[in-house]
Design goal:
- With about 375 residues, this protein is an alpha/beta fold.
- The chain has two domains: about 20-250, 3-Layer(aba) Sandwich (Aspartate Aminotransferase, domain 2), CATH 3.40.640; about 255-380, Aspartate Aminotransferase, domain 1, CATH 3.90.1150.
- Helix content is about 35%, strand content about 15%.
- It contains 13 helices and 15 strands.
- The strands form three sheets. The protein has an eight-stranded mixed beta sheet with strand order 1-9-8-5-4-2-3-14. Strands 10-12-15-13 form a four-stranded antiparallel beta sheet.
- β4 (about 135-140), α6 and β5 (about 160-165) form a beta-alpha-beta unit.
- α1 (about 20-30) runs antiparallel to α8 (about 240-250).
- The longest helix is centred in the last third of the chain and has 19 residues, at about 255-270.
- The structure holds pyridoxal-5'-phosphate (PLP).
- Pyridoxal-5'-phosphate (PLP) binds near residues 60, 164, 167 and 188.
Length: about 375
């Protein structure tokens, strides 16, 4: 029976073995709370790893984006420019603040925010007489966006950048860590990310004062008074000490995880890229991706098969795969929002959504299991 084959997941958690040591420390010290020595140490270790002044550990990547938008003063009716090709967690915080997202297409070189679309959106906003309060740039599937031209355009208009590096921890751009290019950067430790704490996130910045303010908001905005006193609205967004203990154990092996995922990508590409109509997510020379997920494009005309057929066939063999993120400008939630494309006519993000498939890419994926996936795809796609 096909059902009896062990399931191959897209990107399952991969523990290192160090996590339990740190959890034991947390138990022995009885810091079972959303604060404690593990949280402080995890923040310090993350800041050191990515090379920024401060890091704030929070309950999710989405919470980290929300705090970043509040720090930038994003409020009701404000515009926020966002990558369209992304996960909803990038954009929901814009709605929490009552702001209005404007979506930008991808460029074909990195699949990330198109500088051409960004320029068009700024020209439009200037004409409308309302510049955005912030730009949220996503580093998709573990590859940094082309930050230099993006930052140049944003600086020219004096608009700050939030870098959504939820998928790109461990990647670099021009030798500097992904997530440290914007005014604020965010990471996610959700169960499917390159390292995980079960759930969690991190806000990073060189602006230590801003992160102090974010800490205040993330812990219910308690005024410095001997009783519980509140002048501002806050949130319960702090990371638990147990969760931080898991993160410390995971961070120790991050570089190995990047290595493993890059090797998985290399094997898929070596085995399948020779088939006509099949291609893979490109890697820009300016950066080094962590290859969080291997994404393959299938040209339906050349291959006479669509990605959904491949996904269903893999599912029959108990293998999990997924379409590429459905672009935000095509979500019912965002009907009526502005969208700017990379070129005159073609929308790159739409094409990537229609032709893209995320293949099993977990760092614990065995070579035998990967060969199973490759065999099935080869049988289906003749080119
Ligand atoms: C996972 C993810 C998020 C959200 O992170 P959570 O920790 O799940 O809240 C945001 N943006 C992108 C691009 C993501 O992949």
């Amino acid at each position: 029976m096909e059902d009896s084959k062990p399931r191959i997941y897209l990107s399952p958690p991969h523990m290192s073995g160090y996590e339990l040591e740190y959890i034991k420390e947390a138990f022995e010290s009885n810091w079972i709370a959303p604060l404690g020595p593990q949280v402080n140490a995890f923040e310090a270790e993350m800041a050191e790893y990515v090379g920024c002044r401060k890091a704030l550990a929070v309950s999710s990547g989405t919470a980290a984006i929300h705090l970043a938008l509040r720090l930038l003063g994003v409020g009701a009716g404000d515009l926020v420019f966002c990558s369209s090709l992304t996960f909803i967690g990038s954009v929901n915080p814009v709605l929490y603040q009552g702001a209005v997202p404007v979506f930008l297409d991808s460029e074909p070189e990195s699949w990330n925010m198109s500088p051409a679309a960004l320029s068009k959106a700024f020209a439009w906003a200037e004409q409308e007489g309302q510049l955005p309060k912030a730009v949220i740039v996503v580093n998709l599937y573990g590859q940094s966006a082309d930050m230099e031209p993006i930052l140049e355009i944003c600086h020219a208009y004096g608009v700050p950048v939030v870098e959504d590096a939820a998928e790109s921890l461990g990647a670099t751009y021009r030798g500097k860590a992904s997530g440290t290019w914007g005014k604020f950067g965010i990471f996610s430790f959700n169960g499917n990310k390159i390292i995980t704490t079960s759930g969690g996130g991190m806000l990073v910045s060189d602006d230590a004062e801003a992160l102090e303010k974010a800490l205040f908001w993330a812990t219910q905005a308690r005024d410095p008074a001997p009783w519980y006193q509140h002048t501002e609205m806050g949130f319960n967004y702090r990371m638990s000490n147990i969760v931080a203990a898991i993160g410390r154990g995971q961070l120790k092996v991050l570089d190995q995880r990047v290595q493993a995922r890059r090797e998985i990508f290399r094997r898929y590409e070596a085995a399948l890229s020779g088939i006509e109509g099949i291609s893979f997510m490109p890697e820009m020379a300016s950066g080094r991706a962590n290859r969080w997920l291997t994404v393959m494009l299938v040209d339906p005309v050349v291959c006479s098969i669509g990605v959904m057929e491949i996904i269903r066939a893999l599912e029959k063999e108990n293998i999990e795969s997924r379409p590429v993120w459905k672009p935000m400008h095509r979500q019912p939630l965002f009907a009526g929002c502005q969208y700017f494309t990379n070129g005159e006519e073609e929308s790159v993000s739409d094409r990537l959504f229609e032709q893209g498939i995320c293949l099993p890419s977990g760092s614990s994926l065995s070579q035998a299991d990967q060969e199973r996936v490759i065999r099935i795809i080869k049988q289906m796609v003749k080119g």
